[in-house]
Structures are given as structure tokens and as C-alpha cells.
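Schema walk-through. Below, the input block comes first and the output block second. Nothing else is stored per chain. Lengths vary across the set, and this one has 814 residues.
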Amino acid sequence: MQFPESWLREFCNPPLTTAELAETLTMAGLEVEELSPVAPPFHGVVVGEIKEAVQHPNADRLRVCQVDVGQPALLNIVCGAANARVGIKVPCATVGALLPPGEDGKPFAIKVGKLRGVESQGMLCSARELKLSEDHEGLFELPADAPLGQDIREYLALDDTLFTLKLTPNLAHALSVYGVAREVAALTGAPLREPAFPPVGTGIGDVLPVKIGAPDLCGRFSGRIVRHIDAKATTPRWMLDRLARCGQRGVSPLVDISNYVMFELGRPSHIFDLEKIHGGLDVRWAREGESLKLLNGSTVALDGQVGVIADDSQVESLAGIMGGDATAVSDDTRHVYIEAAFWWPKAVAGRSRRFNFSTDAGHRFERGVDPEGTVEHIERITQLVLEICGTPETVCGPVDDQRVNVPVPQPVTLRVDRAAKVIGMPLSLQQCADALRKLGLPAEAGEGRLTVVPPSYRFDIAIEEDLIEEVVRMVGYNQLPETPPLAPITPKLRKEARRSAFAVRRELAALGYQETINFSFVEERWERELAGNPDPIRLLNPIASQMGVMRSSLLGSLLQVLKFNLDRKAPRVRVFELGRVFLRDAGIADSDTTVAGFRQPMRVAGAAYGAADALQWARKDEAVDFFDAKGDVEALLAPRRAVFAPASHPAMHPGRCAEVLLEGRSIGFVGELHPQWRQQWDLPQAPVLFELELDAVLERDVPRFAPVGRQQMVDRDIAVVVSEQTTHADVMRVAQAALPAERLRSAVLFDVFRPKRGKDDAEAVVGGFAPGEKSFAVRLTFGDGTATLTEAEIDESVQAVLQQLQQQLGARLR
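--- output ---
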């Protein structure tokens, strides 16, 4: 909210400088976001009156003016403004004046000069030249009673400061100049000038029939008829200036009056053209199929969730938000109906955003406007209407006030001990009572407690913590003691057998992956297709329709990142994410870190696409495949050894997917994207993916000392023929179990052979291989920590491995 400092000081003028006043408001929770001058610095500009204006002898578009600025002699000034005419008063920059800087950033100095041969002793100014507005249509015309020769800064009060407050939603009572002044008075002790609302005399008994058909929409509705006004009157300069300094442009006198009272007292109101209302008014919820053309020119479709003011034939206004075009006042308006109502905040909240616009009225009503001030504020509006638009024939009707359903304030109790504990400093009952009473919150004292019935304009006070906040605001946040916490500080040491998540990130970055961070809520389609989750955890209030469920897998988010990069012509993409997933689990109970019924483990996932290596000369350009991702997983888990077993996963290719087993426990999957999803995501090449439990990845083996073997190791190569169904893992498992680890130091597969078969020998034995057979070549490394192995011991070890392979896998030596 923006307002001029001078307006605030009319209600409350504490002995503080502008900066001190801004600091006081900010420290009380009313953050002053910006202080800015009303006008840039300039001097030497005074009020002048054009006494004579004749055509320039040498220029069609210039006039030679004789200007009176209160000096003994008139000034001869050449002016090119179209509205330069005899009798108007305008700002006149005299010789020696400095005007605001132009585009070059330098002040513009006024000197005696000649324009087309005629001497000019100054300059007549527009509002734009003084940087008061963007209006440059002509000279800035001043009121006829402006005193000649007075400095324009003094006359227009340009040595003023604009306050811009950034108010939180609970500070609805401060959305007016008077509301802020009320806070200043409480904070500083300066006297508050309360506005007076003397009743306007009534000359007629006319009352517009009003029916409140929706008490849950409108709790109070007040209005009055005013007849025979002059809608063509001119809004006074002082009112236009104040509105402009609040960020509101002048429209017409009746609209300006309504806006002025809103900024002054925080009460949005509306003025109808009485002759355009058909019959009476009905305050109700809209009906399906109704529409309304608003004052901003847009037409909106209505439904039963939107409140309206309607007459006997059509909808005339959007309740609490904006008036309708059909009953808008104009220059031809003669009779008006002034309305001020209390709209329930919940009935207004969010409605304007449904129609993609916001209004000052809706901003205030959805936060709460005092239901007790409707009649008084109508009196204030009526007073201004009579002053500005009144005629000898103007008459007012009585105020029709209907009160059907207004909030009933509920008492709130403040325990002094509780307040001291929350605030963090000792407080007395008297301190709390004084703080609340300064704010106009009548406190009834009890034994160690205060009971407050909030006034009608304080919608934000409902619980004890609200009163505690008011107390600490009055005491002053800067008065809180700076006491360091007194508690034992015990460092949380990570176990040696566990590494940090950052170490995992660094490892993946070293493998060429880049980290991404994605939302935890995703499309329901991803959960169904990529995670095989038909019943995901749904959000009650998603931020977007395509983000309606919580993810149980990270793969969908990574595929979205991959697709985003491919759409921008990235040839090679490797991304990973460490994130939380959300699973249903009835065994989870509520705690500080858990929610009953839901398990939220951390996982690490990665996706690789494109070439296996960046562009280089030493290796052929080959696409990344399953074994590249498998190698990355092995590097991530090293030195722990994982076992990869064939498996199926909803997101992965049925024949190119493996389950990752660590010490016999499944910790995730690695594989190529399923062809169906590759086609659906429109990917030219299948990416390879992996997703692992982060807790398992963080575990690591503690390094243990082992002496370097003094005896030489011995290698023996064997090639065994096995069936196609036998996997490498099967061969390694049987070979390593055949001998103790002290004897068989390692077994490494270095070749896989399948004979080539033609069409004629598909079912024949080729090179000793029957159909459906293949050969694994394995290098066995033997050793002994105490002595060199003899040939007999080596042969015995080889035979032991071959024997186990034959017995368990049906293998034979090639």
C-alpha cells in the first residue's frame, strides 16, 4: 500500500523524522518497503498567471506571453504549448531555476534566451517537465486561487515522501491511512485525530428496496439515495493529488470520492446511477448462466460460487470486487445510490483471481473490513459528494441499514507466563495490559492472564498467539534480549561405514552426470506407466493440474529433464537426482519426521542418453547401452560388489533390465527404457536408467589392513560350454564357491563365444557346440599366503572349479 507521509501526519504526527517513522513501522511488523520523494529536486519554479498571449511574429506554433509571477514587472516568455492562454495559472520557471534532470542526467538550467528573435525570460512548464506525471499535452494548469509568486513545491506540497508498505495478510486493519495512523499512535504515544462523521440532513424519505438473500455472503448492507447532483463537477486538486500519491488516477468526481474514502478509512464502497437500477436490489449468489459486464470492460460468466448485487432485471455488480457497467455513473448522472456493505472474507477470497484480475476492493474485503463502520462511512462519502457535486437542489435520503449476519467477536485469553516463554523475555501483567490497550484492545485482567474481546476491525485476533504477537510488537522486537542458547552441543558424527550424500553427488559428477532438482509432485500418468503405481498419493490442492500426485519413482522426473534437453538439441545427456519418493505404508506412525501411513525414503536415480563418450578421436562414436549404466552403478557402489540379476520393471525393456542385489538384498534396478515409453516420449534413441535406494548406496566397507602376498599369484584360463540360459553371474557364483577365498583370489570373464550358424545347420552340432550352447572363458587367479603353489595344487584347484561347474550348471570343458 502506498500513501503520502503528509496525509498520515494529519491523523497522527509523532515527533519523528521520516526515517525514524519508517523504522518504527517496520519494527512493528508494518514493513516499509520503499521511501520515495513525491517529486525530484528542482527550484526556482513559482506560480505564474498569463496576462497576455499573442502570436509569435516568426513562428506559427509559438506564442509570446506576458506572465505575472508577483514581481513588479511582467515576464516576457515564449511558449509553444497549445493551451497557453490568458487567465490560466501555471508553473513558471524563472531565470536561474534548475529543472529536474533530462535523459542526459544533468539538471536543466533556465537562462535568458531568444526564440526565433524574441527574448524569453523564463519557461512555462508542463507536469512532465517537472517530473510530476507523464502528462505532456500542455501546460500544467493550476487552480484559479493559486497565490501568485508562491514556490510551486510549497504550493503543491512536493517536499513530501511516499511510503510503500508491504503488509502481510493479517494486517487488513492497516490497509488505510487512518489504520496506519492508529498503529503509529499506539507505537509512539502521539495523539490520534479520530475522524468525525456528522450526520447529513435528510430532505427526502426515499429508500431503495434492498433484499439480502445470502447472509453467508453479505452480513450488513447500508445505502442512501442522493438526488440532483452535478456529476460534471471537477474533482478538487487536493483530492487528485492524494489519489495520485496512492497510485490511483482520477476518473470522475463520484468515483474519485469513493476511492478517496477507501484509501482514507479502508472502506471500499460503490456509487450506483440510481436511474439505471430497475426496481430494488437483491444481494445473493449468482446463478449458473448469468453474466456481467464490468467497469473494466470485460464480461465474465458467473456461477453459484460468486456473490452479486442484482436488480429486478439483471446482475449489476460483482459483490465486494467491482461494479457493473450497466449502472456506472457518468457525466449525465443526476441521482445516485451510495452503498457500503460488509462482505464475508471467505465469500470474496479468490473470486477476482478466477477472472484474471484483482481490485483494491477485493484485496481489502478478502482480508476483512470492519462491519461496524458502514453507516459512518456513508456519511463521510455523502459529505464529500455534497461538497464537490452538490447543487442547490441536492437532497439526501435516510441511510437504510440492514444488519443480518455480522461476526460476533470471541474473547481470547493471554497467559502472561506463556507470553514470556514464547517471546523469550520476562514480562509482567501490567506490561502486557498496557501494550494491548495502546492498540485499542480492551483487556480484562485476571490472575496471571488477560482476556480480550477483539474490536470489529481486528479479524486477525483469534488465538492466544495473536495477542502474544501484539504484545511483542508494542514492546519492540529490538528490545528482545540477545541471549545465546544454553544447551549441550554434541556433534553428530557420521559412522565410518557410511558416506555422505554429497560424496555420492561428487562420484556421479565424476562419472559425467549432472544433478537435477525436480518437484516431488508429478503427473499421474508417470506413476501409472513408469512406476506401475495404480493408486498414487493424491494432492488435495495441487499447484497445477499436471502435478496432482506424489512421486513413488524418480524416473519420470529424469525423463522429463531428458526430453527438455533433447528438444533443445542437446546431443548427449547424462543427469541424476537425489530425491525423496512417497509410498503408502500402514506400518509408519506419526513422529517429528514421519507421517502416519506414508514412507518417504530417499533414492538416487540417473539417466544416460546419446554417445557413450564425449566427442573424441581415440574411440568410435558408440551409443550408450545397458553395460555403460551397469558400469556406472558398479563404480558408484565400489568397493562393494553388486550382483545383477535379470528382472522386470514397468519403465524398462523386458530383456534389458536387471535387479541390483547387494548382499542378497534388492536395492534397485538398472536397464534400458521400455520401447513403448520411448515411442510415447518421442525419443530417437533409448536412454538407459537406474534407480537405487540411497541408504544402500551410502553404506561402504571400512578399509581393513591386509598384508601384501609374498608368494607369486598363478593364472589359469578355462573355457566352459554352458547352455544359453546360464548367466555370467551363475558361473561366477559357482566358481567362487568351489574354493576358499584364500586360494581362489579372483575369477574374471574375458570372453563369450557362440559359433556362427547358417540356415542349413541351425539344428546341427557346429564346432562341438549343440544348438542353444555358448562358451564362457574365465581367468582364474590362485594364490597361497604361506607358500608357492605347486603344479599339483594348481591342477587340483582348477579341477575343483570345473567339477562344481559340471555338477551345478552342467558345464563341460571346451
